[in-house]
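Workshop exercise sheet. Pairs work together: one partner reads the sequence aloud, the other fills in the structure field after running the prediction. Swap roles for the next sheet.
Pair: D.N. / O.F.
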Amino acid sequence: MAKKQFKAESKRLLEMMINSIYTQKEIFLRELISNASDAIDKIYYRALTDDSLVFDKDNYYIKVTADKASRTLTLSDTGIGMSAEDLESHLGVIAKSGSLAFKNENEAKDGHNIIGQFGVGFYSAFMVADTVTVVSRALGSDQAFKWESTGADGYTITPAEKETVGTDIFLKIKDNTEDDNYDEYLEEYRLRAIIKKYSDFIRYPIKMEMTSRRPKEGEEGEFEEFKEEQTVNSMIPIWRKNKSELTDEDYNNFYMEKRYGFDQPVKHIHISADGAVVYNAILYIPESTPFDYYTKEFEKGLELYSNGVLIMNKCADLLPDYFSFVKGMVDSENLSLNISRELLQQDRQLTMIAKHLEKRIKSELLNLLKNDREKYEAFYKSFGRTLKFGVYNDYGAHKDTLQDLLLFYSSKEKKNVSLEEYVSRMPEDQKYIYYASGESIERIEKLPQTEVVADKGYEILYFTDDVDEFAIKMIMSYKEKEFRSVSSGDLGIEPSEDDKASEAEENESKDLFESMNGLLAGKVKKVKASKRLKSHPVCLSTEGDVTIEMEKILKAMPSGQDIQADKVLEINVNHEVYQSLKNAYENDKEKLSLYTNLLYNQALLIEGLPVQDPVAFTNDICKIMR
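Structure field:
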C-alpha cells in the first residue's frame, strides 16, 4: 500500500508536538499506557450492553517489553483493537481522538472513564522513536492491520497477522545524541520507575519481565539472575479507598512513598467530593520546612491526576501562595485538558476545586489549633511566616481567611496566643490591642515604652518577625478592636495623677523642650514630656503610620528604601535626669546641648538604631566623666 500523507495541518501539529508540547520525553510511556487502558475500557463498556461478551478482568492487561539488541520497545494490550478504518481515522488525523468520540457515545455510569480525550498523546512516541509500528486486531475481526510511520512524512496501512485481539506498538528507539540518552528507555528499571511515577494507578495490570537474583542451586554463596514477569503498578490508588480502611500509618507511608517530605506530617486530609465538582484528594500539613522553602527555587503545587493518571507533578493553581506548604494530590475525572495532559485550561472545574481545597485547609488548621495545640505550634514555627505574608500580600485581601490562624507571643501568658484568645480576656476599659516590636522577646521586654501599658495590667503582643507589623497594618482591627503600638503617640490610656503633674511640668518647661527640639532639628519631629515612662529617663515614640521597626526593616531591604518614621523624643519629667536638663537650660546652654545629644543617642541605642556619629557620642560620654 502506498504511503499516505498526514493532512497539512496535522503534519504541522505533529512537528510542533514532537519538538515543543511535551517538556519531558519520558511521558511518551504514560501516553501510550493511557491509550492501552482506554482500549481495555472500551471492551468493558461493550460488555455492559452485549450479553455475548463476558468481561473477565484477569484476561486484560498491558505489557511492556524492552529489547536492547534490536533497540525496540513494545507495548501490548488486550484491548478492543483497531480495524483498518480505525487506524486511518485515529492515527491518520492528528488530534482526532477515538477515545473522546467513544466517551461521548458511552457516558460512564460506574466509575470507569476514558482517560485519553485528545489524539496527540500517541504521537509523543516520535520523541524517542525513529519508527513507530502499530499492529492491531479489532474485536470481532479475524484480520489484523499494521500502521507504520517514521514521523511527519506520512504513514502506511497494510494487512498483518495477529493471533489475538488487541494492539501491539513497536518503537524503534533513537540512537543516543550528545544531548539525549535514549538508552534509558530500554532499561527495565528506568521503565518501571517511569510507570510507577505516571501510571501507577492505571486500573489494569502493567506487566514487565524484570530481572531478579536468587541463590544458585547447589552453589553456596553464589547467585544467578533470572527473568520473571511482574506487575509493576499498584492499580488501586489510596485516595479511592474508604477512609475506614486506612490507618495513620497508611497515610504516612504514602507521604514517604511520594517523597512529599522527609518529616512526619502533623495532619493528613482525605477528601472525597461528590457534588458540583467531583474529585478525590489527600493533602498533608507538614511539620518542618523543605530546605528550599524560602527560596526562589521552591515550587508550590499539588500532584494532579485525571482518572489515576499523573497529569502534572505540581499544579500551582490548586493552592494559594499562603497555603503553599501543603503537599499532596488531587484526582479528578472531569477536568478539561488541552492538547497534552501537561497543560490545563483555567477552567471552572479547576477553580472550583481550588476554592474547595482552600476552605478545607483553613478548617483543618483551625481544628488543629483548637484541638491539638502542640502540633499546631510545631507547624506554625515552620510556616507561620507564610501565613503572615499571606495577610500582608494583595493589600490585605486574604486577611479574613488567615487572621484566626495567626499566633503571637504574649507578655502575660509567656507563650504564643491567637488574636481571639487575646481579645477574649481584654478588660472592659482596654481600648486597643497593644503590641511591641523588636528583634527578640528579650529585647522587647526591656523596652521603656512597654511600662505604662504593662502597669495598667494590659497584655502586649510581641512582634519579632519582620513581617508582623506590616501584616497587622493590613488587618487594622480584630473584632472591632484596633491594634496600637506601645510606641504610638496615643495609647488610649486615661492619664494618672502623675501624668497630670507631667502635663503641668511640660507646660512649665515648654521653652526647654523647644530648645532641645532646635538642637535635634531634622532628627526628631519634637521633644515632649512622656506619659508612658516610669523608671526610664528617655525613649523614642512615633507619629504616623511608619513605626521605628518598620523603618529599620524597609532600610534593610535590597532596594534600600529611605523611609523615615516621624520620631518623638520623650523625656520622663519624674526622673532625676530631667532636673539636670532644667539646670543646664537655666545655667549652661553648652551642657544642655551635651545632655540633649546624649539622651537622643541613648534613645537610639534602646531602639536598636545606629548612632549617627559614634565618635561624637563617645566624646560626649568622656565630657560627662570629666
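Discussion prompt: The first strand starts at residue 62 and ends at 67. What would you look at next?
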